[in-house]
Design goal:
Radius of gyration: 32 Å
Helix content: 25-40%
Number of strands: 38
Number of helices: 27
Structural class: alpha+beta
Strand order of the largest sheet: 4-5-6-9-14-19-18
Length: about 1050
């Protein structure tokens, strides 16, 4: 050990040296006690160690106690009920069932975890006139219908890849296949194969431990699926079949709604709206100091133009109007309105569609408006065979074009004339003069209140495109070296032979188009969207988009930076410090207790915390013995869920098609476990489990070779990331991830007047990173390359719409009145609110876009953005005011720009002195540069000056200095222990209290009888005060944070 050299020689040395040895031995014993004192006895005894969520204010209910035992036998059965030791059983705790209620008079009541979705109790909506803060939405319950059972026997993909079983990596605790060496050299998508044509696994059965539920509390209202299989739950069109069915659906740039006879239009048809940027509403100034608007939104329920039909407009007088849907897919749906026993209008609805189309069969079209028009004109002459064109100039200055392709479409193709004559009745109603079979199409011209720029070009474009409409999207993708591509193949109908398809692209599309697709952009034809900037028209039947996937392909399990890649080389000094902390956190904090949760979210976070710790211990610290001990416990903890033995077991819902928590079935509360039963947050919840499974497979490949373990994790992957519903009909394709928007929607089966939403962008990226690691650990090449492409797309999308860096023009897409907030808060399809579902404190709002901090974090959140956000909200001690676990989150994030400054906080507690000039993420060892860091200069211990010590439990590093001036007592900082007894004060242990001892050491040094050990790396001195176990989020550990800092900072 450092400080004791050649003890055998010292034993026969002078009495002074012998006495010195006694004192040093005592010193080491005190230091070891200090190491144990990192966690106060009261906390260690409870086994509840770290709070399981930031700001959690609930209670822990202790179960019946039993005598303690020695711990987990490494050879114990993985049956979780048999394997839990009495030591852990005596301290098992479970949180009370979580009910998430928001009082409209107290909208920011703290909840145990950021609820990223709106349950029926808490739908955040936008009123018809102006938006306001969140308020409750009436619950809607029902019994879902049961579809035909999905077959578990599916054909293998028609093209693509050879799915390979996991390949052994060698010893479970050796890095025989380093993360940064993983990317396969061939396989999925590499030679013209389609990334989306291979299922997650060839085994399409479900785990035997899953019971099935034929019905679901949320009914499949009006869905008349024409094919077997699962129904998308988190997609843009869900308001068509949820609740009242009257909330809007956003296709971008348009929104659609079934007014149900309400609103200014009083119509029963399909209402089409578009809102210019000049028509947005902005909220009050954000209370957290950004001076930006706290929220912005667009009005809903406008019904600019309504496409309806005479029988529909009779409303309930003829037995009622019914909205039904067919062909419900991830990017499209067919919406139908029926009355009098038949379908009167059908609308193919596709994301990005350039024109809104309504199909009629022997009906009488009715055109209405909630805005009203000042003029309706019919174009003279024949612009295209079978097409009649009208121009509607609205009271708000906007101009809409209405195209009627009349008669039977096949007859029109033969050159026969169609026609539609409208009888304009006042300023908001027009009725056809006769029966009509064909299509009506609406398109809005750019301009209106924004001027006339692009209007003429747009009209020419729509004139040429009318008569053709999109019906769906097929997705394909490939990887060629370090470039990934994905292509939208738009399916179309109508006059397809002589009409090009017009679709609208969002800003992130425009930035990543291939050169061929970019040539099809009509750059002057632009329309504003609600929350995705300005969309531009593209003429063509397919788009190809490209992403550089070299960075994701280089990310592994250990800390990673864009500059250095995977980093696991840290100094011995840092390793010794972290090992002592890891001993406490892995083996003395009740892993089985902490991971036994009644919530898939909390359970997943707790498992992922220990998984990250094992990566740190095994891959970075190289302590394979400790890693093995922790690994055996984590296997047992994970088995509780893999065997479905948690409080609320998972079930397979046959109604919608997915794996859900039984919590809502059991409690009757739709908000239980944050709405997991209603498909809220599945990518968050299951992402943590997938990541934990990936770590287990990484450390012990034989674990993943077990069919039950492999099947369990793959089933969760299938639930959130199934690439093809036709190949794996148990689940919809990409339940949460939206390839059109480039990010996920966390909002499940709840009606919402502002559309789908997502709060935590960082947990969105975490779930894709987890997919990447699971694919890497199990050699699933199709999933690996697809996830790398997905993560690159997600980076682009999040930095366009969620994270706002003033130095990046691509991050200034959102309104300038809002972007100074730096993050979105909650992003809806219709509005963005700089707040969370559980509170409006700045650490909540900014921090929910940080957690969890994993190797992919610096790929998503670049240094300049983090620096800007830190300076605005948390520099100068702002982070020190954060509540509970949010403080650890903020400083973990700070480590990405100043790892040494963050190390000081985690190692001993304190506040970086500023933050305006963060250090480089990977400075050379020993630099000690950067604001907020503390440089350890060579210091000689006694004759001398105040002693500089490395804050390492059980290890004191003595380093020489020049001119000594005083004798001060060397101390060992103990994080988070204000007074632990035995000579400890303010988190330190007095290393020497005797003047004689100090004199003895000083004289030995002066005479050269003690040698100074060399210091490999300069580990910053710990700062005192302020940081403790209570400042760690339930999904984070001090072990991982310290490893994170050491790796990023070259410590």
């Amino acid at each position: 050990m450092i400080g004791i050299l050649n003890t055998e020689r010292q034993r026969h040395s002078t009495p002074i040296a012998w006495l010195l040895l006694l004192w040093l031995t005592a010193l080491l014993q005190i230091q070891q006690a200090a190491c144990l004192a990192i966690i106060p006895e009261s906390i260690r005894a409870r086994r509840d160690y770290y709070p399981l969520a930031p700001g959690w204010t609930g209670f822990l209910n202790q179960k019946e106690t039993t005598p303690e035992s020695s711990g987990v036998d490494a050879d114990a059965s993985t049956n979780v009920r048999a394997a839990i030791t009495s030591d852990d059983a005596s301290n098992l705790s479970a949180r009370d069932p979580i009910t998430s209620e928001i009082n409209p008079n107290q909208p920011y009541k703290t909840a145990p975890r950021p609820i990223s979705k709106t349950s029926p109790k808490m739908a955040v909506t936008t009123p018809l006139v102006a938006p306001s803060p969140s308020y409750p939405f009436p619950p809607y319950r029902g019994t879902g219908s049961k579809p035909s059972p999905a077959s578990s026997q599916s054909s293998h993909p028609p093209k693509g890849y050879s799915q390979q079983p996991p390949k052994p990596k060698g010893d479970s605790n050796s890095n025989s296949k380093p993360s940064d060496d993983y990317p396969p050299s061939d396989g999925a998508g590499g030679a013209g194969g389609d990334l989306f044509s291979t299922p997650i696994t060839s085994d399409l059965s479900l785990p035997a431990c899953l019971q099935t539920q034929p019905d679901h509390p949320a009914p499949r209202k009006g869905i008349k699926q024409s094919q077997e299989g699962a129904i998308p739950t988190n997609k843009f069109h869900a308001n068509f079949f949820l609740g009242s069915q009257s909330s809007s659906v956003w296709t971008h740039p348009y929104s659609l709604q079934w007014p149900k006879g309400q609103g200014d239009s009083g119509a029963w048809g399909l209402a089409v709206s578009h809102v210019d940027a000049s028509q947005r509403f902005f909220g009050e100034k954000d209370p957290n100091g950004s001076r930006a608007a706290r929220w912005f939104a667009s009005p809903v329920g406008r019904a600019d133009v309504v496409l309806s039909e005479e029988e529909l407009e009779k409303g309930n007088a003829t037995g009622g109007v019914e909205l039904t849907t067919q062909d419900v897919k991830e990017h499209s749906v067919r919406m139908q309105l029926s009355a009098g026993g038949g379908v009167r209008l059908e609308a193919p609805v596709v994301q990005g569609m350039g024109m809104v189309t309504a199909l009629y069969k022997q009906g009488t079209p009715v055109i209405k408006s909630g805005i009203g028009w000042s003029m309706v004109t019919k174009a003279m002459g024949v612009m295209k065979t079978g097409v009649v064109k009208y121009r509607l100039v609205m009271h708000d200055g906007a101009t809409w074009l209405l195209y009627a392709t009349g008669g039977d479409v096949s007859a029109i193709k033969r050159g026969e004339l169609g026609g539609l004559d409208l009888d304009v009745q006042g300023n908001n109603t027009a009725v056809a003069k006769g029966s009509f079979t064909g299509m009506l199409q609406l398109a809005k011209l750019p301009g209106g209140g924004n001027g006339t720029e692009g209007a003429a070009d747009a009209e020419k474009l729509f004139d040429a495109a009318c008569g053709t409409y999109a019906t769906g999207v097929e997705l394909s993708g490939s990887v060629d070296g370090q470039k990934g591509r994905y292509t939208f193949h738009f399916q179309k109908e109508g006059l397809a032979s002589n009409s090009g398809l017009v679709m609208f692209a969002l800003p992130h599309h425009q930035a990543s188009f291939s050169s061929e697709t970019a040539s099809k952009v009509a750059s002057s034809v632009k329309l504003d969207t609600t929350t995705k900037g300005v969309a531009v028209a593209v003429v063509g039947d397919e788009w190809t988009l490209e992403e550089d996937i070299s960075k994701p392909l280089s990310i592994g399990f250990v800390p990673w930076t864009p500059e250095a890649g995977s980093v696991k080389d840290i100094s011995d000094t840092a390793k010794e410090y972290i090992k002592n902390v890891a001993q406490q956190e892995l083996l003395s904090t009740g892993m089985l207790n902490q991971t036994d949760q009644p919530s898939m979210y909390y359970g997943g976070k707790a498992l992922a915390k220990f998984a990250a710790m094992l990566v740190a211990v095994n891959d970075v610290l190289g302590d394979t013995d400790l890693a093995k001990k922790g690994l055996e416990q984590l296997k047992v903890a994970f088995a509780r869920y893999a065997e479905n033995q948690q409080k609320y077991p998972l079930v397979y819902d046959e109604s919608w098609g997915g794996i859900v928590s039984s919590a809502s079935y059991t409690t009757g509360d739709s908000g239980s476990d944050f709405g997991n039963t209603y498909y809220n947050d599945h990518h968050f919840h299951y992402g943590y489990f997938i990541y934990t499974g990936a770590v287990l497979a990484h450390l012990d490949p034989s674990w993943a070779s077990s069919s039950s373990n492999l099947q369990y994790v793959n089933s969760l992957v299938r639930d959130v990331a199934n690439p093809s519903a036709s190949l794996d009909p148990h689940f919809p394709a990409f339940r949460t991830f939206d390839w059109y928007h480039g990010h996920s929607w966390a909002h499940g089966l709840y009606e919402s007047s502002d559309g789908k939403d997502q709060e935590s962008s960082s947990e969105d990226s975490m779930h894709v990173y987890a997919l990447l690691m699971w694919a890497q650990a199990t050699d699933n090449q199709a999933l690996y390359q697809r996830s790398a492409l997905q993560l690159s797309l997600l980076r682009r999308s999040l930095n366009s719409y969620y994270l706002y860096s003033s130095s990046d023009p691509g991050s200034q897409i959102q309104p300038k009145e809002f972007t100074p907030n730096k993050v979105a808060g909650v992003l809806f399809e219709n509005k963005i609110d700089h707040v969370t579902f559980f509170g409006n404190k700045k650490e909540y709002i900014q921090g929910i876009h940080m957690i969890p901090l994993l190797p992919h974090t610096m790929f998503i959140r670049d240094k300049e953005f983090v620096k800007e956000e830190w300076e605005q909200y948390f520099a100068g001690g702002g982070a020190d005011q954060a509540e509970g676990g949010w403080k650890g989150v903020l400083y973990g994030n700070y480590a990405t720009i100043d790892p040494k400054g963050a190390w000081e906080v985690f190692a001993g507690a304190g506040v970086p002195s500023g933050g305006s000039q963060p250090a480089d993420p990977a400075p050379a060892p020993g630099n000690g540069t950067g604001n907020g860091t503390s440089t350890v200069e060579p210091t000689l211990i006694p004759t001398s000056t105040s002693t500089s010590t490395v804050s390492t439990p059980g290890l004191t590093t003595l380093t020489p200095t020049a001119t000594p001036t005083s004798t001060s007592v060397p101390t060992i900082p103990v994080p988070g222990v204000p007074d632990s007894g035995n000579g400890t004060t303010n988190g330190t242990v007095s290393a020497m209290t005797s003047k004689m001892a100090r004199r003895t050491i000083r004289r030995a040094l002066e005479k050269g009888k003690m040698k100074m050990p060399s210091v490999r790396a300069s580990v910053p001195k710990a700062k005192r005060g302020g940081f403790s176990a209570e400042n760690l989020d339930g999904g984070a550990s001090l072990t991982w944070y310290l490893t994170w800092c050491a790796a990023l900072g070259g410590l």
